[in-house]
Amino acid sequence: TYSTLKDALISVKVAEEEQNFITKGIAELFVAYNLAILTDMYGDTPWKEACDYTVSMTPAIDKQEEIYKDIMAYVDAAIEDLQKSDLTSLSNQDLIYKGDASAWLKTAYGLKARYTMRLINRSTDKQADLNKVLDYVSKSFTSAASLHLKSAVSK
């Protein structure tokens, strides 16, 4: 998972340098998703120093609460970036949605709903956060039929 996380972080940086915002948004979702897998499995876990061996071979442990703040920040950044454009098409490289930014945007809102629900017991205003979840879900896929996977696997 850390290897995938490192690759996603590199992809975010490269996509930003090349001003490929859809690609950056997709990479940001992969950062958020892999971070969530790690912290959901282990709770407090290395993050800030974990993917850069030039910083430390024994990275510090980060608190799960702080990791979740970063997860949500990456999803929010992805939502913003997925509404922009790429200078080059990624339809041949994107095996899941063939570069369809609107499908990735729906995925981002689905993840936003999922992670908001995971944090609901720590919420200071549960009703407001539940309403946010409903809003995020309404912007995500409405059914399995609406998913329309465009990958080579589905053909």
Commentary on this structure:
The protein has 155 residues and is mainly alpha-helical. The chain contains five helices and two strands. Strands 1-2 form a two-stranded antiparallel sheet. Helix 2 (21-42) packs antiparallel against helix 3 and helix 3 packs antiparallel against helix 4. The radius of gyration is 16 Å and the shape is flat.
Keyword list:
single chain, 155 residues, mainly alpha, two-stranded antiparallel sheet
Q: How do you describe this structure in short?
A:
With 155 residues, this protein is mainly alpha-helical. It has helices at residues 2-17, 21-42, 64-81, 101-118, 126-138; strands at 45-46, 61-62.
String of helices and strands:
HHEEHHH
Shape call: flat
Tally of helical segments: 5
Q: Kindly report the average pLDDT value.
A: 91
Strand content: under 5%
Radius of gyration: 16 Å
How is the topology of this model organized?
Layout: H1 2-17, H2 21-42, E1 45-46, E2 61-62, H3 64-81, H4 101-118, H5 126-138
Antiparallel strand pairs: 1-2
Helix pairs in contact: 1-2, 2-3, 2-4, 3-4, 4-5
